[in-house]
Amino acid sequence: MDVESVRKKLIDLADEDYRAFHSKLVPGTENILGVRVPELRKLARKLVKEDWREYFEAAPNMYYEEDMLRGFMVGYGRMNLEERLERIRQFLPSIHNWAVCDCFCSTLKFTEKHREAVWEFLKTCFTSDKTYDLRFASVMALDYYVLPEYTPFVFQYFDHMKHSDYYVQMAVAWAVSVFYVHLPDITENYILENQLDDFTHNKAIQKICESYRVDKEKKARLRSLKRK
């Protein structure tokens, strides 16, 4: 497969109405063609049956969708654990927005079978100073590590992530809300004594209170824990 033929396919799949809609969700990203994510996933699954590595290494990231494709290839391609972790490492600098980050995370289902090895990899992301390394680690945590044995360590990393970028703060808030739904006791204790900045702390409580899976009594108690 070559870059130009794949790009032509992406252009053929583009929908102008969807491009206009999706562009509003990813502000600051100007290179969107307008291909829906299910179509991108379908194309990626087809491409990984060919020599996808050549495309992965050659694609110049002219379009947002090309970044998405490369990320999906890392999740769908056949490779051993060591190569997959290395491909993740290679791909991380290509993440420039929340959508590519979060879709990439949701595609890395192999994590469920290699949770400890991936956790070791994520430690370096949690201690990075790069916005999308931190968001990647946070979203991976909420996707694959909402488990009692990992939760205290995830929360420790959250407390040490002193980063003022909105997309990092919102990822942490989202993650805390997911942990609360599944592990309410340990997460409420964390909310009581966390070292998060006030914005992230309050957003986490807000997102928990938006969940239909949390009862009114708990929501009222949590609202009282918001910081002024």
UniProtKB/TrEMBL annotation:
Superkingdom, taxonomy of origin: Bacteria
Alphabetical list of SUPFAM superfamilies matching this protein: ARM repeat
Protein name per its UniProtKB record: 3-methyladenine DNA glycosylase AlkD
Organism: Frisingicoccus caecimuris
